[in-house]
Amino acid sequence: MEGLSVVVALVILVIITIGMGVRIVPQGSKHIVQRLGKYHSTLNPGMNIIIPYVDQVPYKVTTKDIVLDIPSQEVITEDNATIIANAVAYINIVSPEKAVYGVEDYEIAIQNLVQTALRSIIGEMSLDSALSSRDLIKAKLKEAISDDISDWGINLKTVEIQDINPSATMQKAMEEQAAAERQRRATVTRAEGEKQAAILEADGRLEASKRDAQAQIVLADASREAIERVTRAISDQELPVMYLLGERYIGALENLSASDNAKNIIFPADLPHAIKGLLNR
């Protein structure tokens, strides 16, 4: 009975030993093998054989793309404006042994590296440039950290700027600045409109004055022509002239009597003599 127990124990030990010596690595992963505490090899996906009790697998590394969320942080621009920026980085591990032995925690290391580079890049830009140059920031950020993380056996596939916005204080200041600018533009537009209206009004008065002057010249020419024609027609005959002047004289007196200020109108008793007086005869 005791012999049977020993055999069973040995069988179990053999099974356990064989199980420890066979390593199945899933697709998308690689395992790091240490032999007696020292790096020995990297196991690829599939079935692998290691030496039980001597070899150990302390690290299991994924070879799939890793998404690193870079936390938001305050960044000071070149013109001392504060903005809030965060990013996301896509990496994959191409050399697992470098990733696990090259840095204590590669995810935290890359996050800190991206944040530091982001502060440095935006710190050399003005506020307006930082808010409108995401592609430029992305390119500089990728260029700044790619070489550093490649030493850890990690490839930076891309890095994207998620949000880059002014801080709450800056947003309030920008809103006030925008409101002031809109008010200034409204004032300029209103003043420009009033100026154009005044110019148009002056042009209108000038044009009207020119036309009035032309009309007076035309009337004067017409009066002169009329007088010349009347002079030629009546020659030295006094009676038609007296008739015309008398007619206009009476018409003028009628208009005068129709005015609000007129009370009494007295016609001269000797109208022909009065007309002759007008003719100085």
TrEMBL record:
The chain crosses the membrane at residues 6-25. Its main location: membrane. Signal peptide: none annotated. The keyword Endoplasmic reticulum does not apply. It is a single-pass membrane protein. Keywords: Membrane, Transmembrane, Transmembrane helix. This is SPFH domain-containing protein. Gene3D superfamilies: Band 7 domain. It is found in: Membrane. Belongs to the band 7/mec-2 family. GO terms for cellular component: plasma membrane; side of membrane. Residues 20-178 form the Band domain.
